[in-house]
Inverse folding.
């Protein structure tokens, strides 16, 4: 089966967050995921888009978010990039730590990692790339999270 | 669908019936404004009925935490009623399920507030 890939360049707006979520839901449905998996994938993409728009690009209208979906034989691969300062994965606090449990933010990456099979964060000086993979048939070949 | 909120009084408890999505933007703002408005009016026994909330994101979870903390800091009580499976599962994986006082029967929930 050949790979199908589609990508979007989006503004740093709240509308982008909603569009990314809806698009992810459609892509996941087309890939054959069930309703619960579709919800998880679309929510992971929503959280990634929130990070890109708010924390990465900080609503800067001159900065864009790119969102790409690739359907391979075994996976749905989703890549979202921003043009922000770069997210340091080592500085993401654990939202389950007792000191953080009652914080009102900081759960986005945790939810993405909970819902997707592989999550990679690639920060750079020109922004952050977040790559997420969901195995189409629940293929357990990959670990929960790839090395950074 | 955005979020809708309506309130009713039962035996001194304000029940807030929420429906739709509690997400970054409008949904979170509606919840925040509703709870703050109630507390400012001295209505400090608040039961959030989430039975028709079909979606919540990390911002919405944060807003629930904020509402709970704000009520508590003002001497009030905020409890949750009728969680959908999605919301229940999210509170479980974020370890917040045991933080909130969660009820599944309205009458029992109303009686559980301190007199």
């Amino acid at each position: 089966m050949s790979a199908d890939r589609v990508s979007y360049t989006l503004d740093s707006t709240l509308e982008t967050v909603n569009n990314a979520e809806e698009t992810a839901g459609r892509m996941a449905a087309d890939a054959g995921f069930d309703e619960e998996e579709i919800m998880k994938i679309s929510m992971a993409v929503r959280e990634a888009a929130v990070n890109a728009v708010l924390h990465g690009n900080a609503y800067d209208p001159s900065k864009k978010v790119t969102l790409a979906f690739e359907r391979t034989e075994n996976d749905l691969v989703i890549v979202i990039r921003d043009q922000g300062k770069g997210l340091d994965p080592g500085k993401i606090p654990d939202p389950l730590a007792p000191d953080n449990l009652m914080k009102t933010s900081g759960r986005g990456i945790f939810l993405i990692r909970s819902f997707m099979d592989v999550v990679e964060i690639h920060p750079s000086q020109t922004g952050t790339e977040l790559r997420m993979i969901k195995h189409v048939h629940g293929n357990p070949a990959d670990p929960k999270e790839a090395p950074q | 669908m955005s979020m809708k909120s309506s309130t009713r009084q039962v035996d001194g408890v304000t029940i807030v019936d929420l429906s739709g999505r509690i997400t970054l933007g409008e949904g979170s703002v509606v919840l925040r404004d509703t709870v703050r408005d109630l507390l400012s009016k001295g209505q400090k026994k608040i039961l959030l009925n989430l039975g028709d909330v079909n979606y919540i994101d990390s911002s919405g979870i944060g807003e629930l935490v904020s509402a709970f903390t704000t009520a508590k800091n003002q001497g009030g009580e905020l409890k949750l009623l009728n969680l959908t499976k999605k919301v229940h599962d999210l509170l479980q994986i974020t370890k917040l399920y045991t933080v909130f006082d969660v009820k599944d029967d309205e009458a029992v929930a109303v009686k559980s507030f301190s007199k």
